[in-house]
Every structure is written in structure tokens, then in C-alpha cells.
């Protein structure tokens, strides 16, 4: 499939190529729905994710829906939309949202709100997963000029599934008639369930809700019609948290993604399994910035350019518990502490610095480069925080971003990021200092975004031709 030459020049995450669904369908086998799901969900994400180019506000789904929880419980406040599509784009297939029992979503949110100490995500489920509103843009250096408003929230990375659900509930291509739908979304808050049951030693209890969902879906004629191949989930945690194997370590995971019913579905996840994720597709972690208007975006771009940078590189993170990844992180922290050109923020259990959005953004926006070594898993929400702060990400593994988010990342990583191979990791400062300042400036501009265009890199990300 190819878009026009002009589309290729101007293609971006939320500006669609002129595909025709009729011609698209002719290009694939009638029995194969995965390519169709990939394309349609990609386009759907342009409306419904936190990337915001179409300036959705934060609407609650229909109050009559059994999957919606009360606005009061969620701490939701209504906002006026700056721009909202009223009709479905003919190039986007209609989709249906399954009405499932509240215990699969709304009840999990209510449980979180009533047990805030249960897990780290629970204090952040308010505002439909956006979390606590921040009073100003994170500019600790010049609070007098800070831009006040509600574009910034203390959003937890695990609330991606809630944000996704909130958007699709009012999407113009949603159909209430399952017979008219091409795709089917199952609004299971699998990540919230995992978080609440991470310490559950009894595997039967830990897996129970996932098994109940699979049993419910398999009882539906519309699911059995294509064995779930036209259905999809969105989960807010790494896929490994849903892939517990008897042969592997426990790590608090359940078996959701290994169930036969789910194996045929498409799974949108903030981290796909690099080797076993045949039906998994990476979607970006939500960050703190949720602009409602183009002015919000332009204002933040201007703020980043006005402030500039003061240090060569920064690292926000800790050593972690994974022995394989601890060595590189220990080395990074040591190198950062020894350099007056590095800004370190060390994360340790019991310390709250790494949960402070203002501190994190202030540190990252002051550095040219932000180090992104793998953490407890390959990916890091910090990658998206860094590009939001105008900080060029420095990777140590291709699985941190390049193999994860192919729907979103530009095809030429060297224009917006740095990859350090093992031989370069003991002299990080020297390696980064070798990059010419003019090249650093071009890379930083690629991350921030051009003035007058569609927004910073985290909001408008060039797509690969597919």
C-alpha cells in the first residue's frame, strides 16, 4: 500500500494517507484480518490516544454505559472541546465497544479509589486516568512566567488503557450496532487488575478474572464468528505481565495473553514482547502533557526554546533489581555523578523524587541528551518524558523504542536519537561530547518540533511508510 507523494512528504501520526478501505480490503486475503486491524487501529489511535492533535478534551463516556464509572468517583471535570470530529472519516472502519460486566473495568477503578495504598497506579486513576492536575508547566527556574492551565497532569504510565477507553467511547466511528462493525474493542482494564493482584500467591485467584473474560468472549457468537481475530485489547502494562509461563519466573504476572481466546486478538500494549509478541503492537506510554489546543502545544515549544539547556546529559532512574541491567545502570549513575556536565536523579525505594513530574521535566529540559537504559523491562516511560522535554534520547538497546513503536517513530533514528553500543558505554560523556553542536541543535529541533507545524515530537510523530 502506498500513499501519494505529497502524503509521504507530509505524513504524520494524525494526518491520514488517502487510503480507500475498498481497495485496502482487496489487497488482503478475505480470511486475514490482522493487517486490517493494524491499519484501522493505527488510524483509530490518531483520534483516541493522548497524542491530542485533534484536541480532544477529557469526556466521560455515556452515563448509561455499564462500563462508565461516576464522574464524582473519578474526579472528572468537563472541558469544552477545541475541535471535535462530528462525523466518521469514510476511511476509518466502524468499531463496536463490547459492553462487559463492570468488574472488568469500572469496579477495578472503584477498588483503586477506595484502596489508594494498594498499588502505585491507584492514586492516578482520577480524571479518567489523567491523574492529578498540575497547576503550571514544569519550569522551576522561572515560575513567574509559568503557563497556568490544565494541559499538564501527573499521569501514571499504567493508565494507558483507561485513556484509550475514554477516547473511543465518543469517537464518531463508534457504532452501536455490532453487525455494522468491522472491529471490536474489549474494554478490560487488565493493567489495573494485574497491579491489584501482583502479590497474590494463588495463581488460580490471580488468573480468575482473565479466565472469566475469555469465557465470556467465547460465549459470544460475534466473537466466535472469526475466533476473535477482529477483536482487540489495549493494556497499560508491559506484555510480560500477562504472559506467565510454568517454565519461567513468576514475577506476579497472569496468563491473559497466553489464553487461546486472546491469542487470536490484537493487543495494544505499552511494551510488546520482542520475540513472542506476534499479535502485540506497541503504543506510546502516556506522558504528562495533554494539550487541548494548538496554542498549548506552541506555547510549550516556545518555552523549551526560550529556556535552552545547561548540561550535556541527564539520567533519571535507579539501579533496579534485574542483575543483567543493574551493571549498566550502576555504571551510568557513577559516570553521571562524576561529571559536572550531567544531571542525575537517582530513584530508590521510598524516595518520591522520581514520582515528581515537575522535578523530572525540569531536569530533562535542561539537558541536551537523556540516557534511556533498559529498566525492569526493555521500555521506559522516561523515553517519552525526555522527548516531551526536548531532550534527545540516548538508547542502549533497540528494544527500548525502535522495535517497539514502529507505528509512531521516524524511519531514521539517527535524526532524533543516539544509540550507544557496548564498546561506548564506559565513556558516555566523551561519546556525546563528540557530536557537533550544530548536529545536537538539529536533533533537538527534531524532538521539539518546528514552529508553526503540528507540534512537538511526542505529539506529532512521523510514521514509517507501511
Q: Could you characterize what this model shows?
A:
The protein is an alpha/beta fold. The protein folds into two domains: 5-282, no CATH class; 294-448, Glycogen Phosphorylase B (Rossmann fold). It has 16 helices and twelve strands. Helix 12 links the parallel strand 8 and strand 9 (342-346). Helix 3 packs across helix 6.
> How much of the polypeptide forms β-strand, as a percent range?
5-15%
Q: What general outline do the C-alpha atoms trace?
A: globular
Unreliable runs, pLDDT <50, ≥5 residues?
1-32, 46-84, 140-148, 460-466
Q: SSE string, helix = H, strand = E?
A: HHHHEHEEHEHHHEHEEHEHEHEHEEHH
* Count of helical regions: 16
Strand arrangement within the widest β-sheet reads: 1-4-5-6-7
Class from secondary-structure proportions: alpha/beta
* Largest sheet composition: 5 strands, parallel
Helix fraction by DSSP (H/I, runs of at least 4): 25-40%
- Rg (CA only): 22 Å
Oligomeric state of the chains in view:
single chain
Please indicate the count of domains: 2
- Cα distance, first to last residue? 7 Å
- pLDDT averaged over residues: 78
Beta strands, count: 12
In short:
Helix content is 31%, strand content 11%. The chain is an alpha/beta fold and 466 residues long.
What's the SSE blueprint?
Blueprint: H1 5-10, H2 21-26, H3 34-48, H4 71-74, E1 95-97, H5 106-114, E2 132-133, E3 153-154, H6 160-168, E4 183-185, H7 190-196, H8 203-218, H9 221-224, E5 231-238, H10 260-263, E6 266-271, E7 280-282, H11 294-307, E8 311-317, H12 323-338, E9 342-346, H13 357-365, E10 367-372, H14 381-388, E11 392-395, E12 418-419, H15 428-433, H16 437-448
Parallel strand pairs: 1-4, 4-5, 5-6, 6-7, 8-9, 8-10, 10-11, 11-12
Antiparallel strand pairs: 2-3
Helix pairs in contact: 3-6
Family: Belongs to the glycosyltransferase 47 family.
Transmembrane segments: 39-60
Main location: Golgi
Amino acid at each position: 500500500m502506498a500513499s501519494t507523494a505529497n502524503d509521504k512528504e507530509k505524513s504524520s501520526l494524525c494526518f491520514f494517507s488517502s487510503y480507500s478501505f475498498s481497495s485496502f480490503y482487496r489487497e488482503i486475503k478475505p480470511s486475514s484480518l490482522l493487517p486490517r486491524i493494524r491499519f484501522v487501529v493505527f488510524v483509530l489511535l490518531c483520534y483516541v490516544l493522548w497524542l491530542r492533535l485533534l484536541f480532544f478534551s477529557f469526556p466521560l463516556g455515556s452515563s448509561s454505559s455499564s462500563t462508565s464509572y461516576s464522574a464524582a468517583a473519578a474526579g472528572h471535570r468537563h472541558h469544552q472541546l477545541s475541535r471535535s470530529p462530528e462525523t466518521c472519516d469514510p476511511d476509518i472502519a466502524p468499531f463496536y465497544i463490547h459492553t462487559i460486566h463492570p468488574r472488568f473495568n469500572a469496579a477495578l477503578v472503584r477498588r483503586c479509589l477506595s484502596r489508594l495504598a494498594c498499588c502505585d497506579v491507584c492514586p492516578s486513576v482520577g480524571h479518567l486516568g489523567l491523574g492529578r492536575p498540575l497547576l503550571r508547566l514544569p519550569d522551576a527556574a522561572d515560575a513567574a512566567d509559568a503557563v497556568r492551565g490544565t494541559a499538564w497532569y501527573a499521569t501514571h504510565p499504567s493508565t494507558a488503557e483507561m485513556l484509550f477507553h475514554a477516547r473511543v467511547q465518543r469517537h464518531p466511528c463508534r457504532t452501536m450496532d455490532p453487525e455494522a462493525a468491522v472491529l471490536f474493542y474489549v474494554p478490560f482494564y487488565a493493567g489495573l487488575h494485574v497491579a491489584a493482584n501482583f502479590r497474590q500467591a494463588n495463581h488460580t485467584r490471580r488468573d480468575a478474572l482473565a479466565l472469566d473474560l475469555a469465557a465470556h468472549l467465547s460465549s459470544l457468537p460475534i466473537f466466535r464468528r472469526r475466533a476473535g481475530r477482529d477483536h482487540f485489547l489495549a493494556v497499560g502494562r508491559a506484555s510480560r505481565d500477562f504472559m506467565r509461563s510454568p517454565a519461567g519466573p513468576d514475577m506476579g504476572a497472569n496468563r491473559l495473553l497466553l489464553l487461546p481466546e486472546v491469542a487470536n486478538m490484537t493487543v495494544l500494549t505499552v511494551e510488546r514482547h520482542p520475540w513472542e509478541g506476534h499479535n502485540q503492537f506497541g503504543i506510546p506510554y502516556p506522558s504528562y502533557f495533554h494539550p487541548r489546543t494548538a496554542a498549548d502545544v506552541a506555547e510549550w515549544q516556545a518555552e523549551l526554546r526560550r529556556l535552552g539547556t545547561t548540561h550535556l546529559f541527564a539520567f533519571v532512574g535507579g539501579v533496579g533489581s534485574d542483575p543483567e541491567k543493574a551493571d549498566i545502570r550502576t555504571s551510568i549513575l557513577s559516570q553521571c555523578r562524576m561529571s559536572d556536565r550531567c544531571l542525575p536523579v537517582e530513584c530508590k525505594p521510598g524516595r518520591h523524587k522520581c514520582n515528581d513530574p515537575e522535578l523530572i521535566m525540569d531536569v530533562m529540559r535542561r539537558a541536551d541528551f537523556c540516557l534511556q537504559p533498559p529498566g525492569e523491562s526493555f521500555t521506559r516511560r522516561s523515553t517519552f518524558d525526555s522527548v516531551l522535554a526536548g531532550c534527545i534520547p540516548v538508547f542502549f538497546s533497540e528494544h527500548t523504542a525502535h522495535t517497539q513503536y514502529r507505528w509512531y517513530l521516524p524511519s531514521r533514528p539517527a535524526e532524533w536519537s543516539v544509540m550507544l553500543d557496548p564498546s561506548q558505554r564506559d565513556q558516555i560523556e566523551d561519546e556525546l561530547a563528540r557530536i557537533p553542536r550544530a548536529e545536537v541543535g538539529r536533533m533537538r529541533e527534531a524532538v521539539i518540533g518546528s514552529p508553526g507545524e503540528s507540534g512537538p515530537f511526542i505529539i506529532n510523530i512521523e510514521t514509517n511508510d507501511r
